[in-house]
Records
---
Amino acid sequence: MGKHAEIMAVKFKQAPDVNTAIALLHALCTKKPVYSPRIANKPLALYGAGKLGRMAKEYFQAIGIPVVFVVDASAEQYKDDLFWNDTAIINPQHVSLEHKQNILLAVCVATVPFTTLQSFLHSDGWLDFVPFYDITEAYRDLHPLGNGWFSGPFGAEEIDGVDAVLAKWSDDTSRAHHLQFIAWQYLREEWFFEGAPVTTTDRYFIPQVVSVLHHNEVFVDLGAHHGDTTGRFLELVDTQFAAIWLVEPDLYNMHCLQEKLKSRLVGIESRKIHILSCAVGDLPCNKTFFHGLGYASQLSALGQTNAGVITIDELMVIEPTFIKMHLEGEEYNALKGGINTIRNSRPIIVATLYHNRLGIWQIPDLLMNTLTDYVFYMRQHSWSDTGSVMYAIPKERYIGAT
């Protein structure tokens, strides 16, 4: 768990077809991973004061690891930010050589490739730096945040499962992004495919989804957080919809969600909006819940409280037309608990894949084998595998949109 090797950038001239994708997967699986979780065995600083940097500060505070300072090229814009009033934010050019040689830098930026940042940090004199989530993985016994997981080797059944999923994606970009996902989780390599860019501005609402939206949607936002996704949905449908259901178990998130949506929902009939404070899974029950983590609040054995868990099939939703789920690793269970609704109502389904190993093939496989006459896409919406999303769209939507 010491200093890491350099992360490699692997470049391809085009997105792969089915046969090429399967061949690339099999070649990848013959390699030996060299990465592992990273303990903070020296003084720690953060690189990036944005959303991920803020989460990192709160995370390290929660597990008792002090942050010496934060490095950010836009340090000046944070000088009046109360969140950072107890932490120095330094422009990269003002960091001493001594600090660069003796501090572990947790990189809290996912909007550009890690290998791009790696080249800059090397040239700037930094000796030891890793993605933030690689550190969190070393402390899973203390804190549930786990986006830095490592897949480990694939067995024969898993390789067969991934092969089948690669063959069922509806375009080559999906195959490219699926391989990017696996290469990072297995080898910590960044794969690049020309013509299949990572898009950071259209998470949950790729063109294939936006083109089929209508003004009679029943939108179900599972893991609603502060309502940003619902807000974007409202913009795309010009606030014309049949109903919206928001499900969020974290009480602080729920408060922020309600406050944030007040102005957006002015003039909209209250009967069209349903907000539930609960978690979603495969069986109705109560489970321990770790609250206070923002968009990473989740069901966890480390939780401080209990949350009621319901299933999608139990929700009093009449024929949902669009289900978005970002459930910090509960996506697979939530889908299993909603099979009847999904089969009967045939909604658009958008689900995050990157929270655990089930996203490698089990979640796509479940949807691909449950749903008929759907198209399936996968897209990467950030780097360091913090934005892998699956899209399932019923084919009749495209007929209705023409």
---
Amino acid sequence: MGFASRSREITRRLVEASVVLMRHDDHALLLRRRPDDRSFAHKWCLPGGRIERGESPKETAIREAEEETGIAPLIEEFLGPRRITIVQRALDFHIHTFVGSAPHRRVILSDEHVDARWVSREEARLAEAMLPSGLAGEVTSELIGRFARGEL
């Protein structure tokens, strides 16, 4: 007599979000997360956040950038969605990635961040070494890498 083996499917919560790589005068904007941020304390990231009900991914990218930096970017390109699974937290992220231009470089930080830096392509090539606390997550690393190589 054997026991029926049942596989338990882990239910993951879906989180839809948007991020935008903002450029101005051949520089890209990075924001430094607060020290008490649960996931990315002290890490450098791109403006972005969760999509609200009734909002498109593009609208989210613009809204989040403006809320976090005081700058409303002109979205120039949709790079596509990325899916990232965080098994430990049972989360599936669908992250819509955009590239946009900033009309100016004057950043007004929200309380989510403690610093902002416009980095050149050369600085972006050295981002992991230059920014002691590192970059926050796969999407930020990928987009900053593409910016450094002149692809964005």
---
Amino acid sequence: MIKELLKDRIYKSVSPLFEDIDFDLTSIDLDLTKNPMHGDFATNLALKFAKKISLKPMDLGNKISILLKDKNSDIFSSVECINPGFINLKLNLSVFHDCLSNIFSQRQHYGSGSKKNEKVLVEFVSANPTGLLHLGHLRNAAVGDSLARILEFDGYEIDKEYYINDYGNQIRLLGESLNIRIANILGEELEMPKDGYHGEYLKEIAQNFIDDKLDSKLFKNVEFLSSYAKEKLLNEIKNDLNLIDIKFKNWFSETSEVHDTKLLDDTLKNLRDLNVTYTKDDAEWIKTSEYGDNDDWVIIKQDKSTTYFLNDIAYHRNKFSRGYSRIINVWGADHHSHVSRLNAAMNSLGFDNNKLHFVMIQFVRLLRDGQDISMSKRSGEYTTIRDLLAEVNKDVVRFIMVMRSSDSHFDFDLGKCLEDSDDNPVFYIQYANARISSIIQKTNISDYDLSKTKHLINEKEILLIKKIISFKEIVEESSKTMSPHKISFYLQDLARDFHSYYKSVKILDENPSILEARLILILVVKEILINGLKLLGASSPENM
């Protein structure tokens, strides 16, 4: 909005200086200044192009400054070139007032992107249905869902998908473990093997099996028990995801949609027809080293069973066949080595790897009394989503999980999450919204006169408008870089600026024009807080 206006004015004013080189609107870098003493915006235009037109940066900067001042007095109150060649731009207050009025008119739509006519698939969580979701899955879920919301807000059509890893040894082991738990309840003293599933949840499923009064012969049928436990746990996973407001459009089963269809055979035939496989040591390998990876990988074992890698190739071949413009995998950091080989495999099949993206999720630790809580699924000693939600509000859980870049480790401090203080970022942001609601409830204005924004001249008011202006850019950057944490940083900054403003001025001023102007300002702040929290899966309570 404002950046586009400024870039357009700069381009029209200074383009005669750059007639002999490539120069267009995209050549102009423009950033909000951090220090008001350096104006409102700054550009490195002189530093960027001085050498190309045989001038010193300061000389070019001074020429640009003169042109901008002479031709744009309606926008710029001052233009100054400072060493080594940065150009600082100070805007007339009317520019900020007009911008705020425009944003107020957009209200809840401000920050959203125009429709892109592009469809994006975001696959995330995809935990094996062999246990309840734990803290590691929670971070993946929060990042994946927030990313999907941000992309949708930015104008993309989104499909959210959960890949159900319901095939292979871990599912067979689940059935065997359930068999032992049923036998235990029925009086048999069988011991759970070390690599079995030891969690209390399996005892509950065993009791459910008995309560369902199924054919007694079935409790010895491991294949049936595997399916029974898988379905029970999948329902529990769906229930847990509902608790944190996450719903998937697609549930893609490895068993029914990869192994029970022709997808695997067709994929293998496709690879062989393209001559990208070979046989060595009685196994079949894929030539991923020829397509960007460091090694080749086995896809058919010596016993003729398929590897997980071939299953994954088939699944991603299916993803590409569905016509998405972008395919995003939100994976745990322990799968990092898998990225290169999968990219190589897709490349060998002739797919455009630029469409395939990965968001890697680093580990998160839950601290209680300074102690790290274990998350071992088979021992049963791990903190589940429902355990955490019994102590911590859903909004706090969702927000905290995206407070840091997903590729960095972080500690989830239970103590801070339970505080109603400025140290709890979710409380701090939600309290800003509740404060604004309280102010609005004390007024009776329903039809706002946007011309009153001219009364916003306080330094903190202009600072708040600048922060408001940057929201759309933050959304675009978060969408482009697949970084939900940028929204969380922004919301904390916006809440801080609002609280500072609230403490420094009397918003409910006796002057009706000033009052109306300030209400317009804080209503826009409120709308952004609501939208921003929603993008991260958190609510905006009106009262706190």
